[in-house]
Design brief:
The chain is an alpha+beta fold. It is built from 2 helices and 4 strands.
Length: 84
Amino acid sequence: MQCQNCNAEEMVKGTVPMARQRGKLTILVHHIPALVCPSCESYVLDEPIEEGVAEIIEETYRTSAKSAEVALYRYAEKEEWEDR
């Protein structure tokens, strides 16, 4: 797959972090599988992975205590984190 950002010829399998903030709460998800551009470091997530990360983030926003400031997760395949 060609990079849409810098037109590099090949994106490679790797992992990326993602951070989202709402109010005082920051959610960090790391080790998310992605195709990563070795030139500009932009990335593309497969749709199921993108949906899984979005679920983690939204569930954390719904369930976090108001005093929480940072939530940190290591991405796992959906089947793994549903069993927690």
